[in-house]
């Protein structure tokens, strides 16, 4: 979370070490998201353990004064549609399909970065000083 507070100018995206560190951090968070959870001002990691009757997995997030907070991050199952809420900034609805050969229940992990500082494009440079949630 603290790394995402750093100025973009502190990141040298041509540096291969930074690329490797970012890739490693992203992979670690992906693995952690399947059975762990954490919410910090700039990052939210949540998961949902699906039941055999689950048809959807839903993730939603709101920020308060530009920060992610635990009371405003939700994961649910069997949600039929997106929520009609103008305060919710991120909504992800995943349809769960069943595979006859799979056994047991599954997990879905969500990682929300408050900004896109780790994901700068080498080809595209934005001309505006804004960030996107990833």
From TrEMBL:
Entry annotated with the keyword Cell membrane: no
Pfam short name (any one): GPR128_GAIN_subdom_B
Domain called GPR128 GAIN subdomain B: residue spans: 38-134
Entry keyword Transport: no
Domain GPR128 GAIN subdomain A, residue spans: 1-34
Keywords from the named record: Receptor
InterPro entries the record matches: GPR128_GAIN_subdom_A, GPR128_GAIN_subdom_B
Protein name: Adhesion G protein-coupled receptor G7
Annotated organism of origin: Chelydra serpentina
């Amino acid at each position: 979370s603290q790394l995402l507070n750093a100025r973009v100018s502190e990141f040298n995206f041509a540096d291969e070490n930074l690329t490797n560190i970012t890739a490693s951090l992203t992979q670690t968070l992906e693995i952690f998201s399947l059975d762990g959870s954490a919410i910090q001002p700039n990052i939210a990691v949540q998961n949902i353990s699906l039941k055999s009757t689950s048809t959807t997995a839903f993730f939603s997030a709101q920020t308060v004064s530009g920060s992610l907070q635990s009371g405003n991050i939700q994961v649910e199952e069997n949600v039929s549609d997106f929520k009609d809420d103008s305060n919710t900034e991120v909504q992800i609805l995943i349809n769960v399909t069943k595979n006859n050969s799979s056994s047991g229940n599954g997990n879905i992990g969500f990682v929300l970065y408050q900004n896109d500082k780790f994901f700068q494009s080498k080809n595209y440079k934005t001309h505006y000083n804004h960030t996107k949630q990833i």
